[in-house]
Amino acid sequence: MINKSIRNNIIKQINKGDKKAPFLFLGKNNDLLNSQVKDLALDLLLEYNIPSSYLYTFEDNWEKIKIKDMKSFVEFSNSKPPYKFQMFFIENISRFTISAWNSLLKFFEEPDVTNIIFLTNISESWILDTILSRVQTINLWWVEKIKKDDFLFSMLKNYIEKRDTEILSYYFRTKLEKEEYINLLENIIIYSKENLVLIDYLEEIDEDINAIKQNNVMAKYVADKWLMKI
Predict the structure, then answer these.
(1) Domain limits of the chain?
(2) Which of 88, 146, 180, 196 matches a 20 to 30 Å C-alpha distance to 106?
(3) Which H, E and C letters describe the chain, residue by residue?
(4) Which CATH architecture best describes the domain 4-143?
């Protein structure tokens, strides 16, 4: 089941009524990921009393994608539903060729306010850069991999949202172990994924965590850097 905070933040975007960039969900297991994301899509429709028939799914059947099938799928997006929104779910988008992607270009770049797009894949590595630059990435495997520290997470939340400086006093003045600095960085990742913020920093934070673990980079310096940066 997908984290409730992720669900709630998607609902916030829906309620704003603005155009929303497609949501790209990443996870370790294709079948489980697709099942979880589909359940989330159906749950959102239920939340707004929208029939499940307004979820359009382009399933991965392991066959070569036919451009005519993709164009037919996208055609549904041109009709406005008699509800707040309709949903489009495309599984495992790394299988898309450049031609298939080109058939979706306008669909991705100029989504109507009534169209919510969910995408899945197991990694960013095999996805075209032109797709990655147009989506909101939600790394579910990051949420699974690391654990939330409630005390630290609360301080982090207050710092980011209210500019409460308690966390600065804690990390700048206290001598801590390397693992505690890593814990801070991991909780920044969790906060980012749950609240769909600081997305552009996630890859760099993950690289810094690996550098601390593998290359003995000074952990306090890295933690201080990110506290000032966010």
Answers:
(1) 4-143, 146-229
(2) 196
(3) CCCHHHHHHHHHHHHHCCCCCCEEEECCCHHHHHHHHHHHHHHHHHHCCCCHHHEEEECCCCCCCCHHHHHHHHHHHHCCCCCCCEEEEECCHHHCCHHHHHCCHHHHHCCCCCEEEEEEECCCCCCCHHHHCCCEEEEHHHHHHCCCCHHHHHHHHHHHHHCCCHHHHHHHHCCCCHHHHHHHHHHHHHHHHHHCCCHHHHHHHHHHHHHHHHHCCCHHHHHHHHHHHC
(4) 3-Layer(aba) Sandwich (3.40)
CA dist 178 to 153, 167, 219, Å? 18, 17, 6
Phi-psi region of 14 (alpha: psi -120 to 50; beta: other; left: phi over 0): alpha
Dihedral sign from CA coordinates of 73, 74, 79, 82? positive
Residue 149 corresponds to which tokens in the numbers above?
């520290």
> Which has the closest alpha carbon to 61: 25, 40, 34, 88?
34
Amino acid at 159: Y
Q: Which tens digit of pLDDT belongs to each residue from 52-89?
A: 999 999 988 777 677 788 888 888 888 889 999 999 99
User: Cα separation of 163 and 218, whole Å?
Assistant: 26
Distance CA 136, CA 64 (A): 26
